[in-house]
Every structure is written in C-alpha cells, then in structure tokens.
Design goal:
Distance between the termini: 27 Å
CATH superfamily of the largest domain: ATP synthase, F1 complex, gamma subunit
Radius of gyration: 29 Å
CATH topology of the largest domain: Pyruvate Kinase, Chain: A, domain 1
Structural class: alpha/beta
Number of strands: 5
Shape: elongated
Largest sheet: 5 strands, mixed
Number of domains: 2
C-alpha cells in the first residue's frame, strides 16, 4: 500500500511538471501566432495588388510571347510547406495525407521544412530540393527557391509550379490546400477596367517585357505569403495542441489525486481496523 502511494505521488509530480511545460508552450505559441498573423496580414495587400497588376498587364500582351503562360510537357513540381518543430498537433500529418490524396506517385517536390523528412524518403515523391530551418526564413530565402524553380520551369525540367500549404481560416480552423502558380492562367478583367487601362496606360517597357519583370516578383510574393500563412496555421495548431494537453494534464492530476486520497483513506481505515482488532484480542 505504501509503495502504491509513493508511486502515485511521483506520477502526480511528473504530470504537474508536464503541465507547466505545456502551459508555457501554449503562451509562447499564442505570442508567435499573433506575430505571424500580423506579418501575414501586412503582406496580403502587397500580394493582392501585385496579383491584380500582373493580370491586367497580361490582358494587354501577346500571350504567345510569354512562356510563363504556356504549360510544359514535364510533370509539375509541388512546393510543400511543413514545420521544423513538432508538438503542433496534426499540422504535418494533415499535409502528408493531403499529398497522398492530391498528388500522383513520382510527382517531384520541393519541401520547405524538416519534419516528415523520413516520410518523404519512404514514399515515391522525389524531393528535388529541401530547405530546413523554415522558422528563420526571410523573403530573400524564398525568392531564391522561387528563382531556382522558375529556371527549372523555363528549361522544361518541370511542367508547372504549384504549392501545398495550410490555409489559415481562423485561430481554430486551418486546412491543407493547393494553389497553382505557373503557368499563370489569365483572369478575366472587367471590361470597363480593361478599357480604362488601354486608354490611360502607356507601358514602358512593353507589356511582354514588363511581364517578364513582374512574374519573378509575383512568384516571390506568393511563395512568401503562402509560407506566412502556413507558419500562422502551424502556431495556431501548436497553441491548440498545448491547450488541449494542459487541459488533459489537469484532468489527469484530478484523477490521480482522487486515487491517491482513496488509497490513503483505505490505508488509514485498514490501520484503524487492525488496531481495533488487536485491542479486542487483548
């Protein structure tokens, strides 16, 4: 009985220590989540404006002269965002399940993040490039990745560029999603807007040359924005996981304390019974 009580006390101490860790990690994740959200929202206006601009200019150009609008024969490459650190709930697992659902075997990947590295080695998705330390990436790092992929696209090594990322809906909802980057599919521009552009805009250089300058900026901006969105989702998932872990630890502590008190009470009752029985024997 005494040994059981000691084991319960040790277990309670262990769970309390774990609860302190998960509670601290929840606070850190909450702080990082707010920081990532601010960065993501600050980038959205720039990305949105650049997106509208490039599609307006495409409407004024000779599409046949723009390789970025022509699909290649090779397989498309998919940029995948995963985390570098664990303890973020189902964040990485959901991305892996999405890859298996959406991609064909043999589709090449560019992986940003080091988690799930062993999974990629065991499955038929060749990794052309892997960039770890994704927590410390900056715009220029993703721009280099974007330039390398565009070189592969222009050389015909890959037939298109798409991204699998985790879309941030709100702090409780985030889900894997996929977006195509290249070839760029021209979007319809409102007739009034297009007429105004033709009438009031003088292109220098001409639209085709301008698109060749804008596409790399467009690619860099989209990659950076999708990375920010994935990192925001990662922190939201980690905050939720640590919150759940803290709640579970509290429940487990209550259960262990109840068991400990019941064991202690049973030991006291047994001692009293033995004393009474001994007194009666006398």
């Amino acid at each position: 009985m005494a040994a059981n009580k000691q084991a319960l006390k040790a277990r309670i101490r262990s769970v309390k220590a774990t609860k302190k860790i998960t509670s601290a990690m929840e606070l850190i994740a909450t702080s990082k989540l707010q920081k990532q959200k601010n960065m993501m929202e600050a980038n959205r206006l720039y990305s949105s404006t650049l997106h509208k601009t490039i599609h307006k200019v495409i409407g004024q150009a000779n599409v046949g002269d723009i390789p970025y609008l022509k699909p290649q024969k090779a397989k498309p490459v998919t940029v995948v965002f995963v985390s570098d650190m664990g303890l973020c709930g189902g964040f990485n697992v959901n991305v892996v399940h999405y890859i298996r659902e959406k991609l064909d075997e043999g589709d090449p990947l560019v992986v940003i993040g080091s988690k799930e590295r062993m999974w990629f080695k065991r499955h038929p998705y060749p990794v052309l490039k892997n960039l770890a330390q994704s927590d410390n990436l900056q715009y220029r790092d993703l721009a280099k990745v974007g330039d390398w992929i565009m070189d592969q696209y222009k050389a015909g090594v890959v037939g298109g560029i798409r991204v699998i990322y985790t879309k941030f809906v709100n702090s409780l909802t985030f889900e894997p999603s996929m977006i195509d980057l290249l070839p760029i599919i021209p979007q319809e521009v409102e007739k009034e807007e297009n007429a105004e552009l033709q009438q009031d805009t003088i292109f220098e250089p001409n639209p085709v040359d301008l698109i060749h300058q804008l596409v790399p900026m467009y690619m860099h901006s989209l990659l950076y924005g999708l990375w920010l969105e994935s990192k925001t989702s990662e922190q939201a998932s980690r905050r939720m996981a640590m919150d759940n872990a803290t709640d579970n630890a509290e429940e487990l502590i209550e259960e262990l304390l109840l068991t400990y008190n019941q064991t202690r009470q049973a030991a006291i009752t047994q001692e009293i019974t033995e004393i009474v029985a001994g007194a009666e024997a006398l």
